[in-house]
Amino acid sequence: MGSTPTNIAVGLGLAVGLAACGDDGGDGACALTDGTSETATVHPAGCHVLERDTSACDAARAAAGLDGYWLQFSCRVELGKTSTEVTASADGRPDYLSNYFATGDRCHEDYTDAIQNPNTISAQSYQLQFPLVPTTTATSMRGTAVVGLALNGVPIYGNFAAPGDDIFEEALTFDRCGAHPQNQGKYHYHSEPYPISYDDARFIGVMRDGFPIYGRRDSDGALATGLDNNGGHTGTTPDSPSTAVYHYHVNLQTSTTTGTAGEQQWFLTTGQFAGVPGACTGCQ
Predict the structure, then answer these.
(1) What per-residue string of b and e applies to 1-15 under the rule 16 or more CB within 10 Å gives b?
(2) Is 42 helix (H, G, I), strand (E, B) or coil?
(3) CA–CA separation, 17 and 27 (whole Å)
(4) Reduced to 3 states, what is the DSSP secondary structure of residue 69?
(5) How many CB atoms are located within 10 Å of the residue 141 CB?
(6) What number of other Cβ atoms are within 10 A of residue 232's Cβ?
(7) What phi and psi values does residue 189 have, to the nearest 5 degrees?
(8) Would you put residue 170 in left (φ > 0), alpha (ψ -120 to 50) or beta?
(9) Using 50, 70 and 90 to split pLDDT, how confident is the model at 114?
(10) How far apart are the C-alpha atoms of 238 and 78, rounded to whole Å?
(11) Beta bridge partners of 37
């Protein structure tokens, strides 16, 4: 593995296979991609940042009292709101093609020279509860798998692998969009999710403590600086341009582990919440 922070082989050859299968949109295409369109921003491995059409769910969400970045969540994510929390339900599958969908599934694509783990993506049932008023009591992420939810319904994992494994080595098995499934078919991001954000200030999702996470950059286009031990800071964001709020950023980390020392990765977390995480079903 090279020392490039992308941690995905930029010369990855692609041969997209759209042969028969699972999620059929009626025209032989992957139905999970419905409502998405490619932007001009593309990662060197070939993954485009996507725009998501939320017009079908905007009115219902606004009527439920949701606003701001919550309105950016894909309509594939079911959102609700109470007096104390925002609730979210998702099946965890991505809204783009991946080599980790089963061969023959319409959402499957083949990569040339990809390093792939033996797992395949399967639909899950995640129910998360995000506190509307986050606490400021830092809490370890260890002991749980899902630490947040990306706006496309894919769960966010911490910057660590299973005990005994090296996350920097594990990163070699990420697909071209920066994620992979574990042995129960739970697809997830540990690092910058290229279909959502690539070297920018875009909103990515919300961590389980209720704080939002953005890309590498602040809203002024500069790389985020002054991040605390939790990977966040207080400042304006694209969704809060006039009021400073606490938020996380994708942050660059360097391995100090024998075998991968010096390797870099743009992780979504530092392994610690800034606050206390809300409840979650399906998060272990």
Answers:
(1) eeeebbbbbeebebe
(2) strand
(3) 15
(4) helix
(5) 24
(6) 28
(7) -105, 135
(8) alpha
(9) confident
(10) 23
(11) 51
Alpha helices in 14-111 (DSSP H): 55-63
Q: Quick check: 188 pLDDT over 70?
A: yes
Residue 162 backbone phi and psi in degrees, to 5 = -65, 155
User: Cβ distance 226 to 220 under 8 Å?
Assistant: no
| Strand 240-249, strand 212-214: pairing | parallel
72 within 8 A of 215, measured Cβ to Cβ = no
Instruction: Give the C-alpha separation, 91 to 268, whole Å.
Output: 20
pTM (two decimals): 0.91
How far is 116 from 168, CA to CA, in rounded Å?
A: 14
Query: Is-contact 43 194, C-beta < 8 A?
Result: yes
Burial tier of 108 (Cβ tally within 10 Å: 0-12, 13-18, 19+)? buried
d(CA 58, CA 180): 30
Task: Give backbone dihedrals phi and psi of 224, rounded to 5 degrees, phi first.
Answer: -65, 135
Of the candidate ranges 9-13, 84-88, 90-94, 148-152, the one whose mean pLDDT is the lowest: 9-13
C-alpha 136/C-alpha 275 separation (Å) is 5
Residue 181's nearest CA partner among 108, 253, 75 is: 108
Q: Is residue 179 left, alpha or beta, with left meaning phi > 0 and alpha meaning psi from -120 to 50?
A: beta
User: 3-state class of 262 per DSSP?
Assistant: coil
How many residues comprise the chain?
284
Amino acid symbol at 190: H
Q: Which pairing describes strands 146-150 and 203-207: parallel, antiparallel, or unpaired?
A: antiparallel
